[in-house]
Target: Membrane protein
Amino acid sequence: MLAFGVPLVPTTLAYWIFASSDRLVIGKLSTLDELGLYTVAITASSLLGLVNGALGQAWSPYAIKIYEEQPNESPALFGMVLTYIMVGFGLLCVFITTFAHEVLMVLSTPTFYPAAIAMGPLTLGFMAYASTQVTAIGISITKKTNYFASFSWMAAVMNLILNILLVPKWGMIAASWTTAASYTFLTIAYFMTSQRLFPVVYEKWRVLAVVGLTFGFVLLVPFLPEMTLITCLVVKIMYCLIYVSFLFVLRILDKREWQMLTSLLSKRNAVSDEGDKQVCSETQNSFTTRIS
Model:
């Protein structure tokens, strides 16, 4: 138990460092205006952090259960789950980034509206962070938690160095991108190590496609034209719908996902609380069928 748990203490400290060092560096090497804007951007995009925290609480014990009960099917199941995590967080990234200005209109005053430009990179960072729920699964299953401590400290040091080098010139924009880079490094390091410890069968095309698509749509948001409020909302809704349509055009999602979701919802509505266990079992079987 100590061998498993002790490395998680420096890991938590490292996460705290590269989650807060950007604001400390901005406060020291940039302006207080930049610090204020960046803090608002982090607050506005923190919804992704809440979703990721809830996902971790639900997914971790379930992943261990699947590994113990279906060791042969679990590698493919884990890979499929990563695809769905990427799709879900991709949708949130594009939606939050697209409507960042409107979100700030509700949460703050006009002084802080420029913070919207930093929300895109921050949401991409949260997306990369969410992927560690699966990319780190091999480390957790094999109880090699010392890798968590090593890689998280590497990410913390990298984040701190990049912030010191880039923040004085580019301010909060640099801080937001260094945060995204740190989480990206973290998930890649976890992935490479986990694959040696417990190989997962990833859906490579779907994962890479949704990551590239999300990255492109987030980068293009600042280039949307400025219009009246109503027109702007219509254009932005269409922009998000175009993103969703590309998920199907590129076959990142297809009719199998709709069939699985429809089946799950219909069964949920048809059964009582006593029958919920049977529905969960059938849903798990549908995952296995999808894998095969």
The two ends are 36 Å apart (CA to CA). The CA atoms of residues 62 and 125 lie 25 Å apart. The mean pLDDT is 87.
